[in-house]
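RECORD TYPE: inverse folding
INPUT: structure tokens
STRUCTURE:
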């Protein structure tokens, strides 16, 4: 018998052995059979309902918010009874919220709720899809022209920045290295991540998000590759028409614009700070005012990661499932701020705002059109004249 034929026979026998599954010892493990009597949902969670503060600490939602969310998602999460009783909608929602709130492994949560780790993974994916699909139209709809104007009015009233459509920034969500991905997800911090790009309004709510960018990309590269960035470049975002600033009509009509840091390019509808260290006073004032408005996205990321601790862990899931979890937490963030009336997160003080200026950009300037440069210059002139605020001269 020649060598090649022998090798082929050995390969076939090896495949047959690996296909043979080990015999199940249990259909359902005895420990999990008693889950109704001993699992966390039927004991601890029911006891937490008598203390709203502890309930909120456990789920990041109070009882009323949890029940309201369950009412919206219950029909989607309810499974038909077959030969075995399915896990109820309330428990499915509890398992998913606990994972998002802690970032614990599926195995750890499975032991707590006496279900399998694979079952936890399936439930988390299912509930996150339901949260995004069922609530996105209510709590993160696509902004219309009137919505953009309302956002701009909020920035003018709260942050003294006219014609501002939102602050934009990116956040890295750390995950385990996906198999066969090379360096696509390897970021500049030495970890593996997906990029989460967000536009935030004056009240720390997410208005536009783009999730799933490769960790190796910069914020500017992620913006350019995103649907939002392409729509911004093509002018198909339904933005308001240029309008003059009240009490400063001498500067003419100024375009509505987003504000970002030095990682983003200067565009007609996207403002970034002036680069460099030794800047004239008027440019430093502009950088301070822009950094102050841009704090909203930094604060929103901070609120998000303090509520949903999965952002402080290395997620042991794939990029697709991590993307679903990020989308779900953004919807829940807006849900809490809109339905729950917002939480007691203080507005940054002037000292904190001035700290943003001390961390102002030092990078070189990106290429920009002459029109974008002229728009930034006119904003700079407004902030040093008609749009001056009393404290900016003490900060800069």
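DESIGNED SEQUENCE:
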């Amino acid at each position: 018998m020649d060598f090649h034929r022998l090798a082929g026979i050995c390969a076939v026998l090896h495949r047959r052995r690996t296909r043979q599954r080990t015999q199940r010892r249990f259909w359902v493990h005895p420990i999990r059979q008693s889950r109704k009597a001993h699992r966390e949902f039927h004991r601890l969670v029911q006891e937490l309902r008598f203390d709203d503060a502890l309930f909120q600490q456990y789920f990041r939602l109070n009882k009323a918010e949890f029940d309201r969310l369950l009412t919206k998602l219950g029909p989607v999460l309810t499974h038909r009874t077959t030969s075995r009783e399915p896990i109820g909608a309330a428990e499915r929602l509890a398992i998913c919220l606990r994972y998002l709130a802690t970032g614990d492994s599926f195995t750890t949560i499975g032991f707590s709720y006496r279900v399998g780790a694979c079952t936890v993974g399936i439930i988390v994916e299912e509930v996150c899809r339901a949260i995004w699909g069922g609530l996105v139209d209510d709590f993160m709809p696509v902004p219309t022209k009137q919505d953009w104007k309302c956002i701009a009015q909020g920035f003018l009233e709260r942050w003294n920045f006219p014609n501002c459509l939102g602050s934009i920034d990116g956040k890295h969500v750390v995950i385990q290295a996906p198999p066969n991905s090379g360096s696509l997800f390897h970021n500049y911090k030495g970890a593996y991540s997906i990029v989460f790009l967000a536009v935030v309004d004056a009240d720390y709510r997410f208005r536009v998000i783009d999730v799933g960018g490769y960790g190796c990309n910069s914020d500017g590269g992620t913006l350019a590759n995103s649907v939002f960035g392409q729509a911004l470049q093509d002018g198909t975002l339904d933005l308001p028409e240029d309008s003059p600033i009240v009490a400063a009509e001498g500067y003419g009509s100024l375009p509505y614009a987003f504000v970002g840091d030095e990682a983003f390019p200067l565009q007609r509808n996207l403002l970034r700070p002036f680069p460099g260290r030794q800047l004239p006073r008027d440019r430093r004032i502009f950088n301070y005012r822009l950094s102050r408005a841009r704090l909203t996205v930094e604060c929103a990321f901070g609120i998000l990661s303090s509520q949903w601790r999965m952002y402080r862990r290395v997620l042991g899931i794939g990029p697709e499932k991590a993307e679903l979890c990020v989308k779900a937490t953004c919807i829940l963030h807006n849900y809490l701020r809109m339905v729950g009336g917002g939480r007691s997160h203080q507005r940054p003080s002037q000292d904190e705002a001035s700290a943003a200026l001390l961390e102002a950009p030092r990078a070189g300037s990106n290429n920009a059109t002459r029109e974008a440069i002229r728009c930034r210059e006119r904003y700079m002139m407004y902030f040093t004249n008609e749009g001056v605020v009393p404290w900016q001269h003490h900060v800069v």
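NOTES: The beta strands are 164-174, 193-200, 206-214, 257-259, 270-271.
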